[in-house]
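Lab notebook page, bench 4
Experiment: in silico fold of construct C2
Operator: M.H.
Input chain length: 202 residues
Purpose: comparison with the prior construct
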Amino acid sequence: MPEKPALAVHRDLAWALKQQATRAGESAPSVRGSDWRLATVTAVNADGTVAVAGIPAVRCMETCRLLAVGNTIVISQNSAGNWITWGRNATTESVWTLLTLASGYTNPGHGYNAAYLREGRRIWLRGRIGPTSGTIANASTLLTLPAAIRPGVEIGWAAARDQNTNPAVARVEITPTGVIRTYDASSPLPSWIALDGVSYTI
């Protein structure tokens, strides 16, 4: 069998090298210009970026400013090597988790049961709380929030309460250690208060 001319050999070699380079480029972000993957947040940085394994600073879009450690996110890389995330990967729907009330307190039988919903670093509260008998005394501890959702600072708000047929509110606060207490100087003291609509970040 006659040998191929040198020109044909060179042409075949160039084609083979081109195919090899193409295959390598298809798997290398630095060559193809961009990449995306799933990653788990390992730290939330003070400058608004987040860290994932092997990447210390992923820029966050406005749509994902409430990320927390442990969140699964989608990250994308541009041809310059910079990383960005649009937000969490929605693997499961957020659900309301019931709160454990302090001794002597219960759901009064109307409205939601006391519970919280976590969306990244955003916490929502809802539900009504009342004593098993009588009224809620000033500075009473209604419940203590789980450690993972405590705000770390004192938060206060005006909560809906019973007051015959007149609209009324009670002062309710969360302490830095997660204790929810009422402070109400009005008379009569409330027989229930509502957590509905309370929201904060952790």
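Observations: The CA atoms of residues 40 and 93 lie 18 Å apart. The radius of gyration is 29 Å.
Next step: discuss at group meeting.
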